[in-house]
Amino acid sequence: MTRKIRCIRPLYSGMLSCLKPLGCLCVPHKKILSQTMPFKAWKCLVFLIFIIFSIQNVTSSMLGVGPATVNLLYVPESNLSIQYFVFGAEAGQMLRIYADRDLKEYVTFDKNEMNGTGSFVATINFPKTIDKPGLNFIYIRVEEVLSGGGGGVGTKIGIVVQVVVFAPYPGKYAEISSLLIKNINEKENLSLDLNVASHGNESINAFGNIEIYSDTDNKLIDNISMGYEIIPNQTVGKFYKIYPEKYGPGSYNATAFVLYEKGLLKKDANFGIGTLYVDITNWSMDFNKSKISEFFIDIESKWNNPLLNVYAEINVTNATNEQVDFFKTPSVGLDRWASATLKGFFNAENLEEGRYKANIILYYGKSKTIKQVDLRVLNPDAGLLSAITEHLVLILSIIFILLVVISGVLIYIRHKKNGKKRK
To answer: Is there a contact between 139 and 165 (Cβ–Cβ < 8 Å)?
Structure first.
């Protein structure tokens, strides 16, 4: 008996390419689709539906609001308006707009809802006083509105932008906003930059001072007066000085002190004084016999300028000072105070086990660093045999201990049984 068949057309034409190889385009007439469509085809169909919904969600998640951050200074009983632009919203997408967190009760909008992309205006009506001095954060929230099944309203996605409002502290109040001492090379001048912010509603009188300490032993080596400044309220006072370097190459710590009417402020920083030197900090030491191996050299620049064409030559000698190999590394560039790893290839194919000397000469510009180091050429088979021997000894020791324990337990049980028989 011949049965009629008919084609099942997918909802999306793009499914054809997915379902066709699985043999599920045609099914017997009057059969339930779930009983005849192969399991793999159902997985493909579910996957495609998931992709479609994901694309829709991605489209919704592209919602954006700008500007992202606005910084304001609080002025009593003033008002200020900010225009925001909404982008990435779809036509018909309902959005809700409201303020949250600090000072939200002083924020109004020209509209509380909008449809799709567009703009809105937020107005901040500052009160006569603010209870919280310092930084206040107003969150402007834009959220998609969804109608619930039971007549309720929910939200799906939301974007938050912020308005940062600084409210001055009452009276005199100051902070060290920055202490910057740039790295230099030896015999160059130090640039000392100390900034003090007056965050109160009154001016301050400030005296600045910077102490310099050695990084190695934290010993005080200099005390530099930065002078006196009158800093008006809501401004930043700058203490700046060019100072001749007299400490020598190395790393240093600096501590700035600022004395004003309300107390003493303190801030730390560090800086380096460079010298034209590249240090060899580490190198490969162990190599396998009868093979060519990579030879790594770690280097570190102590110079406050970039260096080009940095490379090394390595001369390897044996116990009688005879050369057994010589090779170079490719050159690299080094940024100021940077580290790098050079790589060459050491040929130990014809060498015996033992110790060797390597004379490393590191070239950079017209300067060089020389370091003589020890190398070892090893027999990997001997190492493997030694490891096997160690493991074997350990296993035999464990077996011996177990036998001793088992023997002791058996002897104890036997003595116990004998004691019972005598009774």
So the answer is: no
**Alpha-carbon distance 362 to 281, whole Å?**
12
- Cα–Cα distance, 70 to 139 (Å, whole number): 11
Domain match, 148 and 218 both? no
Among residues 247, 274, 301, the one where a domain terminates is 274
Tell me, yes or no, whether 337 and 321 share the same domain.
Answer: yes
Q: Are residues 219 and 265 in the same domain?
A: yes
| Per-run averaged pLDDT (10 residues), the chain, 423 residues | 38 39 39 45 54 46 88 94 94 93 96 94 95 94 78 70 95 96 96 96 96 94 96 95 93 97 97 97 94 97 97 97 96 97 96 95 96 94 65 89 89 75 59
Answer for the pair 341, 329: CB distance below 8 angstroms, yes or no.
no
- Give the domain extent around 50: 5-60
**233 and 154 within one domain:** no
Are 10 and 68 in a shared domain? no
pLDDT at 408: 85
The whole-angstrom separation of Cα 233 and Cα 198 is 5
CA–CA–CA angle 32, 38, 39 (5° rounding): 110
One-letter amino acid for residue 7 of the chain: C
Residue with the two structure tokens 């000085």: 241
| Helix/strand/coil for 318 | coil
3-state DSSP assignment of residue 150 = coil
Buried b / exposed e over 254-286, threshold 16 CB at 10 Å, is bebbbebeeeebebebebbbbebebebeebbee
Give residue 410's pLDDT: 86
282 and 360 part of one domain? yes
**Measuring CA to CA, which residue among 223, 216, 227, 229 is closest to residue 254?**
223
* Tally of structural domains, the chain: 5
